Amino acid sequence: MTRLLSLPALVVAGALLLAACGGSSSSSSTTAASTPAPAKASSSPRPASVVGTSSSSLGTFLVDAKGRALYLWDADHGAMSACSGACAQAWPPLTTPVAPKASGAAKASLLGTIKRADGTREVTYAGHPLYYFAGDSAAKQTNGQGSDSFGSPWWVVSPAGQAIQKG
What we know:
- This protein is of the alpha+beta class.
- The protein has helices at residues 2-34, 36-43, 86-90; strands spanning 50-56, 59-63, 71-73, 101-102, 111-115, 121-125, 128-129, 154-157, 163-164.
- The N and C termini lie far apart (97 Å).
């Protein structure tokens, strides 16, 4: 009879132990799985960045889908962005969760992305990382043109992927 009582007690103790372990690891994996999920959920509805063109006295230059000017920075070399921290606050990178798209005179074959130090994907054009200027508050503004903030000049970009160095 003692044997019969200890067998159910053992089964209950084992079930409790499994439930405790299973609940703990289940909670951990749920927490771990749910932590990245909101980041993905918030970025996945975001459409691909669209790079188009606009014209002004500077000529034809690259813009985003809302007509905001896009710049390249002479300090960037190769497929790396040298702009971070305070620089990226004044010159926010054009980022995208998926492959960027071209419109207007922009060429899809010149579009690409690089991975920034913070893990985001920055849009490139002809190998140049693309940025906004925080001082441009409306479409077609090019207030950053020729600025040498952060030690090197900033230029709007032609559809051929070259810096437009006038203005």
